[in-house]
Amino acid sequence: MTPDISVTFTGLKFTNPFLLSSAPPTESDTNIMRAFDAGWGGVVTKTIGMHPVTNVAGPKTKFLRTTLDGRLSMQKRPDTALHSSWNWELISDKPLDWWAPKIAGIKKAYPDRMLVASIMAGSGSDKELEHWQTLAKACQDEGADAFELNLSCPHMDRKDMGSNIGKDQEQVSIVTEVVKAVARVPVWCKLTPSTTDIVEEASAAFRGGADAIVSSNTFPSLPLIDPETLDFEMNVDGLVSSGGLGGPAILPQSLAKMSQLTQAFPDKAFSGIGGISEFAHALNYMLLGCGTVQVCTAAMLDRAIGPTVIKNLIEGMQQFMEKRGYASLEDFRGLRRGNVVVHSKIRRPDGKEYHGGHDAEGYATDQTGRH
Ligand SMILES: Cc1cc2nc3c(=O)[nH]c(=O)nc-3n(C[C@H](O)[C@H](O)[C@H](O)COP(=O)(O)O)c2cc1C
What we know:
By secondary structure, the protein is an alpha/beta fold. Helix content is 30%, strand content 17%.
C-alpha cells in the first residue's frame, strides 16, 4: 500500500506537505494551476500588496553556478553545478483587483488544493495597517485558505515594510494582530532570517496570534564582481543594491534558523523554506519539526513551476516512509529536534585520544605525520 503523505497543517488538509513558495512560480493563475496539475499540495501566491510596483530595469533574478575548480559566477558555462539564486525582485506587480478574481477561479478549479495568499503592506500609520485588513478580507472572500504575512521581503527601502517590519518585534506583533482581527482563516508569518535571534520575532508573532511561522526568505547578499570588467555581475548602470540569496547555498543557514525556532516552540506549526530541491533536503526540515516545506529556486529552474521537483519529492517521501514503516509524517516529524545542543554539550575525547582536533580535512598534519 502506498504510504499516506497527506498532512494537516494549521487545521488545513494538504494532499502532500510540499508547497511552492511565494515567488515567480506562483506569480499568475496559469502558473498556479499548472503547479496543482503537477502535484504540489499547496501554493503560496506571489506577495500581493496595495502600492504600485515597478521592478528594476533588466533581469530580476540570476543563478550563481560553480565549476569543479570552484569558479563561482552568474555567467552560463558548461560543467557547472547550481550554487544559489540571487534576486532583487519586488512583490507582485499585479494589483489586488487583478488577483481577487484569480484566487476565486483557482479555488473553483482546485477546491481540494490549498491556496495561501501572501500579503504585504506597511505598518507606519493606521492607513497602512488598514491595508493589511483590506488585503486579507479581499483574499479570504475569494476563497484563500490561509494568509502568509510577508514580514521578510529584503528589498524594501521603506522602514515600515517587508523585512524591516520583520526586524521589529513590536511591529511583527501589531501587524499579526491586525490581520488576526479580520481573518477567518489561519495566519502564517514569514519572518526574515536577517536578525540576531529569530526566536524573538517568532515569539512576537505568536503573541499577535500567528498560527504558524515560515522561514526562511532569502538571505541579504551581493552579486560577485567580475574580475575582468570590475562590474557587479548583476547591475543597472553599474549600480547594485543588497538582494536575496536562495537555493542550495542557504540550506544549512536556513536549517539553523529553523532549528532555533522548533526548539523554542516545539508545539507550534512551522513551514520550512530554503535550498530544497529533493526529498533529502525536505526531510531535514521535517526532522527538525516542520509540518510543511516550500520550494522556490529549484522550481524556477524546472520549467518554472517544478513538475520534476514535485514528482521526486512525492516519490522520495513515499519510498522513505515505506522503507521505514512510517504511517504518516507525524511518525518522524521532529525526530532530530533535540539533537542540536549548545557547543559545551558536545563530547570531548579523553586524554590520549586527543589530537588537538587535527583529524579532519582542512588541517595540516602535525610533526608525527598524524592529522
Ligand atoms: C525571484 C524571487 C522572488 C521572490 N519573491 C518573493 C515574494 O514575493 N514573497 C516572498 O515571501 N518571498 C519571495 N521570495 C522568496 C522565496 O519564496 C523563498 O523564501 C526563498 O527563495 C528561499 O527558498 P529557495 O531556497 O527554495 O529559493 C522570492 C524569491 C525569489 C528567488
